[in-house]
Amino acid sequence: MKLNKVAMAVALTAALGSVSALAAGDTTTGEIQLQGELVTTPCGLAPESSPVTVDFGQLPIHALADNARAGNVQKNIVLQYCDPTVASSAVVTYTPTSIDPANDALAAFTSGTATGAGIGLRDSGNQDVVWGQETTPVQIVKDQTTIPFVAYVQADSASATPTAGTFQSTINFSIAYQ
Fold first, then answer.
1. 140 contacts 43 by C-beta, under 8 angstroms
2. Which of 13-27, 33-47, 73-87, 126-140 has the lowest mean pLDDT?
3. Which of 29, 32, 80, 129 is at a distance of 20 to 30 A from 65, taking alpha carbons?
């Protein structure tokens, strides 16, 4: 009987030792990816500002009747580490990948099934953006400068009836400092 108890104690000790050895030998691995860009401009573009995503959700076609603007989503381009001693203001130039052929004030839908409408922008001064032209200047603030804009969807013309469906578009921007 004594021998059985000794054997059981030895077996239990061996089993517990092997479990802790297995646990100590297991590892969890992962990866940290780091990226960025060093620039010579008075400000850098904050990570959340490229790309800036605008989601209009679902817009009923009747919201575009009589040339109305629907969606009106306000977003920001955020500049970081700004030095106002190097430049006092910034202007943005917006350029869509494709201009709406029926209304050159709108960016064309470049994919999806919706037709008869496009996307427009208003700048930080609440002025309609003219593609390829500089916007209202924004004052550079030390460390972080925010450049707001409003995106909207509008029918190609007052008489156009848009077709329902999904849409996507891309509008590129460049920032010049003054």
1. yes
2. 13-27
3. 129
- Both tokens of 79, joined, read 């500049």
Phi then psi for residue 62, to 5 deg, are -65, -20
Distances (CA, A) of 178 to 16, 83, 84: 71, 12, 10
Q: What are the structure tokens assigned to 106, written together?
A: 């709108």
Cβ neighbourhood burial of 105 (10 Å; 0-12, 13-18, 19+): middle
Q: How many CB atoms lie within 10 A of CB 90?
A: 24
Q: Is 29 exposed, middle or buried (0-12, 13-18, 19+ CB in 10 A)?
A: exposed
| Mean of per-residue pLDDT scores for the chain | 90
CA distance 129 to 143: 26
Kindly give, in sequence order, each residue whose CB lies less than 8 Å from that of residue 165, ignoring residues fewer than 6 positions away: 112, 113, 114, 115
CA nearest neighbour of 106 among 78, 64, 75, 53: 64
What pTM does this model have? 0.81
